[in-house]
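Subject: two folds for Thursday's group meeting

Dear M.,

Sorry for the delay on this. The cluster queue was jammed most of the week, so I only got both jobs back this morning. I'm pasting them in the order they finished. Each block is the input sequence followed by the predicted structure tokens. Could you check whether the formatting survives your parser before we put anything on slides? The first protein is the one we discussed after the seminar.
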Amino acid sequence: GYPIIHGGGPGQMEASAKGAKQAGGKSVGLCLHLGRKETVSVTHDVSIWFDDFSPRIDTFRHLSKVAMVFFPGGIGSLHEATSAIDHIMQKKAPVRPIIFFEPDADNPFWHGFFQWLNDTVIKNGLLKAEEIHFVKIARSVDELVGFIQEAKTKSKS
């Protein structure tokens, strides 16, 4: 029952689009011209193209009403995640979970980012942990789904 909004590319983005379709849901690809050959999933229902990250990030934030989930990715994924966190902290976007998914417990992808947040940013007083109470780490699919279902329940009340 969740519309899936993703980057429109291969890999996890394509898998989420296929999952949405199999479940009878809708999929929206927010595709980005990167200056190289773009590979776009043909499985999504709507494709919206962007030339820059900024309007794409704004669109992600605008369309993501319940939660935002970040799978392992590159600089763009981290940029989009931290931008979403920053906008919520500044009260420019509604509070909703920003969820980082860790698919491999033996090789945690987001560990370094959270270690930096805790050991450098929070430790040096540049951020308080309670300011990012909405940031979650999901270490299993069940935990991820639970976070989203909890957020959907809260958004209805």
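Second protein, same layout:
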Amino acid sequence: RASRRPDGAPVKKQSLTAGRLLERMRDTLQLAHVDGTGTLEREITSPNISSPGLVLAGYTERFPGHRLQVFGETEITYLATRDAAERARVLELFFSHAIPCVFVTKGMHPPDDMVTAAAVARVPILTSTLKTNEFFTRIKPWLEDEFAPTTSLHGSLADVFGVGLLLVGRSGIGKSECVLDLVERGHRLVADDLVFAKRR
């Protein structure tokens, strides 16, 4: 992913993959990768996360298949009520979309045919011991922060009475000296020369 600096130049950002999410959020979300499911190299391109909903009943017209998907107790229980042939058809339809990763919450293990369908589609399944609501509460702010537009600015940043004061100007004009003077007066240096800004 890339955002833009004020001068129009792109700012490169490391892409978010299922593996990187697992690495960074393993403890917070209490995650484990289900053996035999897809590669963790799949890229996550959206900060949004949702549950499959009506797609499990066969309605896919408005299904956001590019998002991360969460199976809670309701979805797993619903799948268990379908006979084997119907469940296989529903799962094949679900995994035909370009889903980056599937989460199964509440410490439940996905059904064997779900694991098989995910393996065929090369979609990773991650399990979490968290209840579904708590899982959403923890992952949503992290995804929003991860996808927030980011840029770098040439300047010096100080915290003045809790307000960020960014000094910009041509090289050698005295930005650092101004900030150091503020620090001597009891304010806080945040960054000097190169400032990374993120819009949440």
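Two things I noticed about the second structure. The first strand starts at residue 2 and ends at 4. The two ends are 16 Å apart (CA to CA).

Cheers,
T.
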